[in-house]
Amino acid sequence: SMAFRRVLKKLQEDDPRTTWVDFCRAGLGDRGAITLAEALKINTHVTRVDLEDNNIGPEGARALANALLQNTSVTSLDLLRNNVGVTGCQALSDSLLQNATLTFLGLEDNDIGGTGARHLADALRHNTTLQRLEVMHDDLGDEGCCALADVIGSENRSLRVLSLSSNKIGDEGALAIAAALRKNRSITEIHLGVNRITDEGAKALLEALKGNLSITELRLQYNSITSKSILKDVEQVLQDEKRKAQKDDEIPQLPRVLSEGSVLRSRGESPLLSRQSSHTLEPPTWDQHQVIDVIQTVEEGSMVNLPDPEVEATRAALAVLVDRYEQMCEELGRATMTLLDDVRADYAKDEEAHAAALRKDLKDGIEMLRQERLRFDQWMEEERKSLQAEIQVQRERAEQLLKAEMERKREILAEEIQHDHIQQRQRMQKILQAQMEEEYNGFSANLRTEREEKMHELQNDLEKMKQDAEREVRVERASLEAAKESFMRTTERDKGVSQMMASQLIQLVNKMQARAKELENEMTAGVQTCLREEIRTSLVCPSCRVPTPFTCLRNAI
Fold this sequence. Notes:
Elements: H1 2-13, E1 20-22, H2 29-41, E2 48-50, H3 58-70, E3 76-78, H4 85-96, E4 104-106, H5 113-124, E5 132-134, H6 141-152, E6 161-163, H7 171-181, E7 189-191, H8 199-210, E8 217-219, H9 228-238, H10 241-249, E9 263-264, H11 275-279, H12 288-299, E10 304-305, H13 308-490, H14 495-538, H15 549-556
Parallel strand pairs: 1-2, 2-3, 3-4, 4-5, 5-6, 6-7, 7-8
Antiparallel strand pairs: 9-10
Helix pairs in contact: 1-2, 2-3, 3-4, 4-5, 5-6, 6-7, 7-8, 8-9, 13-14
């Protein structure tokens, strides 16, 4: 962006007015971080760099670490909510081994884990300038907490604030911190909120806190501590007046020396020797650098064996330094009192003029504020009107979009309903057709069965009628034959007279035979007609009274 390029140009030009680089939530990524790191390599005035929430990964972190190796002005680097990870954390830790200016490093919410914490611990063993380290929300666990606790309890004496909140730290990590606090006298704040510490870990921290007067703040909120008395005791210990006095009045102390023939130890382990005996000794033969080396050695807590003359010489040198320190304090007190008297006198002289000028400045400031208030009110009214107009335009646009969207959804819904109706109709037709076919098949099977039964009954009746007709014909024929034979016997005498009657009788017999034949045919035709009527009547649908089930099925479909 234009702002990034403008600031980058100032960094490259080493503008002395640019001391704070703030690119929070600027979306730099690895590419932007690499570009910024190249500019920081040649800059000598920037002291603070804030890169919160920029999606910086291991590559960007590695570039910033390389910049810290060359830069000698940056004292604060904040990488909150990025993606540095273990690899990027290792690169930054390696840079701390050589960097001697950085005092604050923020790595909150960068997923460095326990491995990243171990890399930081290795760097803190040798770094002597970093004073504040923030690694909250980094999933350190007990492993990472123990690694950092081990280094602040042994080698590191520069760290003042250590933030370990929200890192899934349990009692194991709390016990490690407690053990470190029994040895460390330089750290002042430890943040352990939102973890998994129970009463056991809290008790250990409380006991360590009682013997450590340098700790002024210990955060244990939102843990698994059930005993409210422990938290109350921790708060009471932190508010102890002796602790406050120790913090306010603490001044650098000289190393304390044991009796003759002993060894030099760190302060606080033995009482000071009286200066009366040291005044009788000759001044030491060591130069200033040798004395400073001895003092540093004693402050670091190491054990240095010295021969008796050198012990006495060191004692004399320390006594001289104590005298010089007291003389400087007295001179400084006198100078301070003189300066206060001068300030009071000057203030008394200029008090009235200063009050008048102050009243005038106050009146001018009030008038300026009133004018600014009027201009602000006008600006707010204009902004309100423009905002209302923009809101109206946005509302109309939203209504149009909503109307178009509703119309589109209505059309889609209508199409879906029509499609569903057609599919449902097709399904109903298929179901109805299947039911009708099933009913037709059942009806046809019943009809065939009934027809076969009717045909069998009609055939039986027809056979009986034929037999009866044949029997009647045989009886009639036999009677006619008997009558004919009787007539022939009785009328042989009168053949000539009765030939006419005989011929008439034969004709009558023939007519009766023809009539019997016609009667038989008529009976056969009647039986067949009855059979056809029965079949036609049985084919009528009982539900709709149509001639055939085919017509009913066709109308239903």
